[in-house]
Amino acid sequence: MKLEGLTVLDLSLFLPGPAVSQMMSDHGARIIKIENPAAPEPTRSSDFFPWVQGGSTVMFRATQRGKESLALNLKSDEGRDILLKLAAEADVFIESFRPGVMKRLGIDYDVVSKINPKIIYCSLSAFGQDGPWKDRPAHDTAAVAASGVLSVSRSPSDESGPAIVGVAMSDILSSHLAFGGIMMALYRRQLTDLGDYIDISMFESVLNASPNIVGPVFAGGQAPDRLQERTHGGNAMLNIYELKDGTYLALAGGERKFVSELFSGLGRPDFIDLVTGPAGDGHREAIAYLRDIFLSKTRAEWEEWFEGRDIGWMPVMDLAEAWDSKQVWERDMRIKDDQGNDHIGIPIKFLNEPGKVHFHLPEVGQHTVSILDELGFDEREVKELSSSGIVGVK
Question: Is 232 a catalytic residue?
Fold first, then answer.
């Protein structure tokens, strides 16, 4: 696999950092997950993540499979020294604490890179390592709110308030940017023999995902009037419509060929020129017409009507339906282990050396003994470290 031979130390929690190392694990990297013996990975707990399958929370399974767990107290000198011994030979170091925490622990990039100049050290945080917001505590929704995206995430058919985005948008976007940054740094290391430090902000990852919505901000110096914008409800062909049975469909393509196919099929070619024009007022009559006409049939009836027509559209599926679709199963995006437990599949599909899902889920400290053995600790030393609370042993 593409990343065989790489060793990654992952000190991160929850979603952004673990998602990065999960992608790397699926493609062959060795991931050593560093956990606090007294307060291990929060996604293990069904108190916070109540959906459990096969003895594990679904969230933990989706982000931690195939990793090794080293339970280590990083607030102790001995725990810090153990981590630095691992870092001396590792390729990648991932952390997601608030800015300044790693420096206080004595394991920041300045320290680690002196021990291992080749290491790629990646920090993920809500707002980045500097700037006036760097010390603000924030999870995904706060980062998305700060980006302005929540202000335009609302129904195009009414004046409801901002809606929570249905996925952890800043978490996942930042994990993908971190993954790309790590890959670039590893590539560059082949030429320079030097590592690098990567500063990834969840907030900035959402800003980076916004090129199609910043037109009124950059060119007009103002926030968008939602229903005048093509992607916020002002375009008839990029919109959501309720159907007779209470379900919904999404039109998702505004090219003229799609516009012509839809409105010719509905017997309203008079809308074609209007709807291929700029979003906003010219689309309003067509949007009102579509809201009425789509309420005349059920989803099944509309699916039959759309069959064979060249129009960008899909029904709005619920999560259960989406994850049980033929497209998901045939593309191996939902797979089952030998016990019948579900796993999210691998989205990066290589022709050569494809990734492979490793179904093993580590228990807290399950690999502590074997990892310490690699570092040269004998049985007596491991027992002493365990009894003093410096390491956790399963």
Answer: yes
